[in-house]
Design goal:
There is one protein chain. By secondary structure, this protein is of the alpha/beta class. Strands 1, 2, 5, 6, 7 and 8 form a six-stranded parallel sheet that branches. A three-stranded parallel sheet has the order 9-10-11. Strand 3 and strand 4 form a beta hairpin. Helix 2 packs parallel to helix 13. The radius of gyration is 24 Å and the shape is globular. The N terminus is likely disordered.
């Protein structure tokens, strides 16, 4: 009896062991499959960080964006980063001078005393740090979509020069034209100060939108082929800008207010209005979201509300603290992993990781008037 039972049990145990071995995960094989999938997506799509301050070049007393920082982007398969000069810093503080003296950040709408020209001088100085990065061969200047595609073909990182807040242009369309001539391709209207184009989304609140000059500014930005970024703008400014602009606009770095309720988040109404114009919402890996699963949930919200074609990623690198998976090493591939785990398709991931932004830029650039 016992021998008969053993004859029955042993094959069963052996089968169970074989089945367990067959189902046991192979970490090396899984990693290889993941890498192969990422490479396949990246081959088709341009990967973009729509908002960053790499190496804190906009505030730190350095000559250029550090090669080590650019290396983090390349290791994560990123092709294009939008490097923003916070041009309100000349008036608001929070930066280090060339002589290493610290200019403290002021609170609210307080401003440092300046004389005419100081804001533009600050802006040009910070932009020169991007241009030196390019001149030294560490990156390619992203002054056209074609330049980015060629850089990607050569395995190089491209950097788009941008402004976060147009305060440093000092209310001059001639200054706007000058920075465009030098290679700037994106202008964010507002940062931490209300300015001569519009009003910010954070305290103290002013329930007003674009100024008359702000309307002229957007029209000229459209004519010049500049992407307009609505990040940090309040609802009336966003809605006014969408009405004036002939081109799609972005809100480069934010979260979803319906999920998080932060002062810097966007409402469903704002998301829908920006998307209706063909624009994008850039979800950030902010520490305030907690973890990657919640970041993906914010992406899900935008996708479900207005569609996959209106989502992008804006890290605000060196401008805040981050969810653990992204960390200080700027692990953009962790975002790809999070999207894969959530069941996003290759094309959906490619669009979110940069394809949507690149498509929008191509549209804005194509609509620009010929420049003399």
């Amino acid at each position: 009896m016992m021998k008969s039972a053993m004859k029955t049990v042993l094959p069963l145990l052996s089968g169970m062991m074989l089945l367990a071995c067959e189902k046991a995960p192979d970490p090396a094989a899984e990693a290889a499959a993941r890498d192969e999938r990422v490479a396949r997506i990246h081959e088709t799509w341009v990967f973009v960080d729509t908002h960053a301050h790499p190496s804190r070049f906009h505030r730190a007393n350095i000559e250029k964006i550090e090669p080590e920082e650019l290396g983090r982007y390349r290791r994560a398969n990123m092709d294009l980063l939008v490097a923003n000069v916070s041009s309100d810093a000349a008036f608001h503080g929070g930066y280090t001078n060339r002589d290493s003296t610290e200019v403290p950040r002021l609170q609210g709408d307080s401003v440092h005393p300046t004389k005419p020209g100081d804001g533009m001088a600050f802006t040009l100085d910070r932009l020169d740090r991007i241009f030196k990065t390019v001149a030294d061969g560490d990156a390619v200047l992203a002054d056209s979509p074609a330049a980015v595609l060629e850089a990607k073909r050569q395995g190089k990182i491209a950097v788009m020069a941008a402004l976060e807040g147009v305060d440093g242009l000092e209310g001059s369309l001639d200054n706007l034209r000058e920075i465009q001539r030098r290679g700037v391709r994106l202008v964010q209207l507002i940062h931490f100060l209300n300015n001569n184009v519009g009003h910010k989304q954070t305290e103290p609140f002013i329930d007003e939108g674009l100024t008359d000059f702000g309307r002229e500014f957007i029209q000229e930005s459209n004519r010049l082929g500049l992407i307009v970024d609505l990040a940090h703008a309040n609802t009336p400014t966003i809605m006014d800008a969408l009405e004036v602009s002939t081109q799609p606009m972005i809100f480069s770095h934010t979260g979803v207010k319906a999920r998080h309720g932060g002062a810097r988040d966007v409402t469903d109404e704002e998301i829908q209005a920006i998307a209706a114009k063909g624009g994008l919402i850039g979800i950030w890996p902010s520490e305030s979201l907690g973890n990657m699963a919640e970041m993906v949930a914010h992406i899900d919200h935008v996708k479900n509300l207005v569609g996959i074609d209106h989502v992008s990623i804006g890290s605000d690198l060196r401008g805040m603290s981050y969810i653990p998976e992204f960390g200080e090493e700027a692990n953009f591939l962790a975002i790809v992993d999070g999207l894969m785990a959530a069941g996003y398709t290759d094309d959906e991931i490619g669009k979110i990781m940069g394809g949507n932004f690149f498509r929008l830029w191509e549209q804005v650039a194509a609509a620009a008037a010929p420049q003399s």
